């Protein structure tokens, strides 16, 4: 059978070229390698608000009918909400506290009249992996790669294959370590912890299931994680941890934050459920000292589709970006959100003590020069009328040269659709601009 030439692709800055009848898409990632010759940095601006609605969107606070009804949640460092003035609905009685000037009088929250502009969001990365990891009970982890089933009883480790990559999955006590890679499903059915390691590439999970949580359930090292579907039950906490010796600081995005990409609507159930909250604040009533102890910039959630919904008792320090959906704080009693939310519509219901505090997480580019200009690329054409008989090994050759002072080609990924099929970080010869992927 004939094989089409795969597509070269990466999440940002694509450049298209034609090779015969096939369209080839290449992206080579350029990063700074010399601190003394940094390119000019683009200017950035912050939203300045905890709630940010896109154009034609809206924000609804508390009582949707009586604008003079009470507002029992409090805003902090967010006197204005970014939305068209006609788009701020519900009660007009919500107040803001300035944490930097706690002696100042409370002010009523108002609309800025300026809706937020969407961020550029890279395409969601899916996976065709058949690898399943199931933390079934405190003594057992079952690993099945679609052809072979292995088991960890007590403490230990097993290797498994996923799309040609060997992954070492280990268990120590109540912690199962998940290395960066591709997974069909990861399931937690016991009061334990899934520790997700960072890697040189993104982690892609088709289905993530957590049940029977009773506290800390997920630990993420900084990096990029793509989760197609997620089912997370009550009291499943999430923590950000430094990269371990088994992980890699050279994450796919060179990020200092955990970037969770979700591809469908997600509900964070009641709890208390705490995501990226500092020690001792999960069960506390949130005030100024507790707000000042948080680091929401360490956790960024990107919903590529659908809504993000939280229920009573959820406490989150993060940036949440819903590209096509809404963000709903339902029954928001004894809840807290510190960071920024961006969405079409944002709603918050009256409930128990609740805090919404602005801390900068996302920025938007302003002027300035581009610090990541596209590389110069040429594809070596494949000979016409070539037929490959499965199974076949196909080599793609190309010439890639970085543009801009201090930039270099660090990695080239080869995708077929959204599936990663090959990668290279080294030219065919030292100091060469020629690369080859088979």
Q: Could you please describe the fold and organization of this structure?
A:
- The protein has 438 residues and is mainly beta.
- It has a domain at 1-42 and 412-438.
- The protein is 1% helix and 47% strand.
- The protein has a 20-stranded mixed sheet that branches. Strands 16-17-18-20-22-24 form a six-stranded mixed sheet, with no helix packed on it.
- The longest helix is centred in the middle third of the chain and has 5 residues, at 288-292.
- Residues 1-44 and 365-372 have low confidence and may be disordered.
Beta fraction: over 45%
Outline: globular
Mean pLDDT: 80
The number of E-state strands comes to 39
Terminus-to-terminus distance: 18 Å
Structural class: mainly beta
Count of DSSP H/I helices: 1
Uncertain runs: 1-44, 365-372
* Fraction of helical residues: under 10%
Largest sheet: 20 strands, mixed
Rg (CA only): 24 Å
Quick synopsis:
The protein has 438 residues and is an all-beta fold.
Helix and strand arrangement:
Layout: E1 7-8, E2 15-19, E3 22-26, E4 28-32, E5 44-46, E6 51-61, E7 73-76, E8 80-81, E9 88-90, E10 95-97, E11 107-108, E12 110-111, E13 132-137, E14 140-144, E15 149-153, E16 156-162, E17 165-172, E18 175-178, E19 182-188, E20 193-196, E21 203-210, E22 215-220, E23 223-232, E24 236-240, E25 258-262, E26 266-268, E27 273-275, H1 288-292, E28 299-303, E29 308-310, E30 314-322, E31 327-329, E32 335-348, E33 354-358, E34 363-365, E35 376-379, E36 396-401, E37 407-416, E38 419-424, E39 434-437
Parallel strand pairs: 6-9, 6-32, 7-10, 7-33, 8-12, 13-19, 18-20, 19-21, 20-22, 21-23, 22-24, 23-25, 25-28, 26-29, 27-30, 28-30, 29-31, 30-32, 31-32, 32-33
Antiparallel strand pairs: 1-37, 2-3, 4-37, 5-34, 10-11, 13-14, 14-15, 16-17, 17-18, 35-36, 36-39, 37-38
């Amino acid at each position: 059978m004939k094989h089409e030439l795969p597509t070269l692709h990466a999440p940002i800055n694509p450049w298209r070229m034609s090779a015969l009848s096939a369209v080839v898409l290449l992206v080579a990632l350029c990063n700074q390698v010399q601190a003394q010759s940094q390119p000019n940095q683009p200017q950035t601006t912050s939203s300045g608000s905890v709630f940010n609605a896109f154009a034609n969107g809206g924000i609804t606070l508390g009582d949707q009918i009586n604008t003079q009804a009470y507002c029992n949640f409090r805003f902090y460092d967010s006197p204005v909400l970014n939305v068209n003035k006609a788009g701020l609905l519900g009660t007009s009685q919500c107040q803001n506290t300035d944490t930097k000037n706690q002696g100042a009088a409370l002010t009523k929250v108002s609309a800025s009249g300026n809706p937020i502009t969407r961020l550029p969001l890279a395409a969601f990365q899916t996976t065709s992996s058949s690898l399943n990891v199931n933390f079934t009970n405190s003594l057992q982890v079952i690993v099945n790669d679609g052809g072979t089933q292995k088991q960890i009883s007590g403490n230990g480790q097993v290797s498994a294959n996923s799309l040609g990559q060997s992954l070492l999955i280990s268990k120590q006590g109540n912690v199962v370590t998940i290395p960066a890679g591709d997974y069909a499903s990861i399931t937690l059915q016991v009061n334990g912890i899934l520790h997700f390691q960072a890697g040189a590439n993104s982690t892609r999970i088709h289905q993530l299931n957590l049940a029977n949580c009773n506290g800390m359930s997920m630990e993420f090292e900084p990096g990029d994680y793509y989760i197609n579907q997620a089912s997370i039950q009550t009291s499943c906490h999430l923590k950000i941890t430094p990269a371990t010796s088994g992980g890699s600081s050279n994450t796919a995005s060179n990020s200092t934050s955990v970037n969770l990409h979700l591809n469908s609507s997600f509900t964070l159930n009641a709890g208390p459920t705490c995501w990226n909250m500092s020690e001792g604040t999960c069960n506390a009533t949130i005030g100024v000292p507790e707000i000042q102890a948080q680091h929401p910039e360490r956790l960024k959630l990107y919903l590529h589709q659908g809504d993000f919904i939280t229920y009573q008792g959820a406490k989150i320090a993060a940036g949440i970006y819903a590209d096509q959906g809404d963000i709903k704080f339902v029954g928001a009693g004894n809840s807290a959100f510190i960071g920024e939310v961006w969405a079409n519509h944002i709603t918050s219901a009256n409930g128990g003590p609740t805090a919404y505090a602005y801390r900068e997480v996302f920025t938007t580019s302003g002027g300035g020069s581009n610090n990541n200009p596209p590389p110069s690329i040429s594809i070596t054409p494949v000979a016409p009328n070539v037929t490959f008989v499965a199974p076949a090994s196909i080599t793609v050759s190309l010439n890639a040269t970085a543009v801009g002072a201090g930039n270099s080609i660090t990695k080239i990924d080869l995708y077929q659709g959204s599936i990663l099929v090959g990668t290279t970080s080294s030219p065919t010869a030292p100091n060469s601009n020629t690369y080859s992927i088979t």
